[in-house]
Amino acid sequence: MMMDILMYLFETYIHSDAELQVNQDELEDELLRAGFDQKDIYKALVWLEELAALQQGELDSAISVSGATSTRIYTAREMDRLDLECRGFLMFLEQVSVLTTETREMVIDRVMGLETDEFELEDLKWIVLMVLFNVPGNENAYTLMEELLYTKEQGILH
Question: Which family does it belong to (predicted)?
Fold first, then answer.
């Protein structure tokens, strides 16, 4: 599954501070050896390229940023993917300043870019971490999100 590959890559290369300058062919070989399907590997790598493009502002036309007082209205397709719990979690993250309207839209874009039938709150949390990690200037938000995910005192999020 594509989400499993993304989580594997995030934990192996990004979160562990491992060497990031990896040849794409070597990366594909490693993922194949780890037991992932070639088709899912390709989809995951394309997903990561699109995340990088968002971060660099190449897809800005796809993401419209609204004012701080506006309310996000989800499309039917977005509501199919993001259940009420996920949408509530996104709103909570905005309220505690982990997400801005821009990073929220990037998260939603990347959630919608996943080719999966199953999506749940735990997957959303990983997507939020990946987006925050890849967008410069969000180091504090990333750290707070990490704390929200990994601190046992935050029972509401586990």
Answer: Belongs to the Smg family.
- Give the pLDDT mean for 53-70: 61
Domain assignment of residue 43, yes or no: yes
Please give the C-alpha separations between residue 60 and each of 16, 25, 50, 51, in angstroms, as whole numbers: 30, 29, 12, 12
Domains identified in the chain, total number: 1
Residue 14 pLDDT greater than 70, yes or no: no
Q: How far apart are CA 5 and CA 44, in angstroms?
A: 7
DSSP sequence for 120-145? -HHHHHHHHHHHHHHSTT-HHHHHHH
Domain that holds residue 128: 2-60+72-154
Question: Does some domain include residue 118?
Answer: yes
The mean pLDDT value for 78-89 works out to 95
CB neighbours of 127 closer than 8 A, spacing ≥ 6?
A: 107, 110, 111, 114
Euclidean distance between CA atoms 33 and 69, whole angstroms:
48
Tokens 């037991």, residue located = 35
Least confident span in 19-28, 45-54, 77-86, 109-118: 19-28
Q: Rounded to two decimals, what is the model's pTM?
A: 0.79
